[in-house]
Amino acid sequence: MPILNALQDFEWVDPDVVPRPIVAFGAEMSDVGGFELEPHRHAKGQMLLVQRGALSCEVEGGLWVVPPRSAIWIPGGALHAIKATGALEGYNAFVDPAVDARLPKTCCAVSVTPLLRELLTRAAHLPYFYEEGSANTRLVAVLLDELAVARVENLHLPMPIDPRLRSIADAMIASPANRGTLEIWARHAGLSERTLLRLIKRETGMSFGRWRQQLGVVLAVKWLAGGASIQQVTSDLGYESVPSFVTMFRKALGTSPGRYMAERHSR
User: Ranges for the HTH araC/xylS-type domain (predicted)?
Assistant: First the structure.
């Protein structure tokens, strides 16, 4: 089941067998302590909103991080795995892909408006088999409208498939403070620099330097959402100074890390 298994009175029902456009529920956990869901699929699409804490989700072809007041949309049938650490509060909505052609066809992180958040909160309190043709049906219709127009956020890290590149990616994720040169990383994978550049561009659509920067953005958002200080994140990512880290973050997300997180706790 999804992340919401800490509710003592929560009885899991497979959302794929519930004949309703949306099946939604929510939960609050004080500490999930390294919770992890192995790769799995749902026939229905899944929107996972994080209200407090942070998640990382690996979906076919990429890694997403979901900070507070954001959500991830996972299309039906997509293989995905979920990880979380620390306290976590969130909502889940499983959506029948047949009910709205406007829903995203690919996985994406989306910004959550106050209206979308309130609609999802209301939907989470509906019975699984809520009465159709009533006010509940209209609530679900508006929720679908809001989800279809939600703004996509740049919290995605494309993950390479080539095992040589994946060994580099896994090593960088494990030791993000390692600021090794292109030459060092190419040697790590048994590649020439030229081959490494060609493969990373082909598989991720990014240059080597751009991919490494995006890795830093994704990890920074995850750590900041978990309560780490800007100074700690700067050190853990291997930046020489806080200003250099803040400049990178601002270029990627359009605002400073402090303001980015403050906005997510003030809405």
Answer: 163-263
Residue-wise pLDDT tens digits, 41-86:
999 999 998 888 788 888 887 899 888 888 999 999 999 998 877 6
Please give the residue range of the domain that contains residue 167.
160-264
Q: Is the Cβ–Cβ distance between 92 and 45 less than 8 Å?
A: no
Alpha-carbon distance values, 74 to 48, 104, 218 (Å): 8, 9, 18
Total domain count, the chain: 2
Statement to judge: residues 145 and 164 lie in one domain? no
> DSSP of 11-59, one letter per residue?
----GGGS-SSEEEEEEEES--SSEEEEEE--SSEEEEEEEES-EEEEE
172 and 256: one domain? yes
Are residue 131 and residue 16 in the same domain, yes or no? Answer: yes
* Residue type at position 98: A
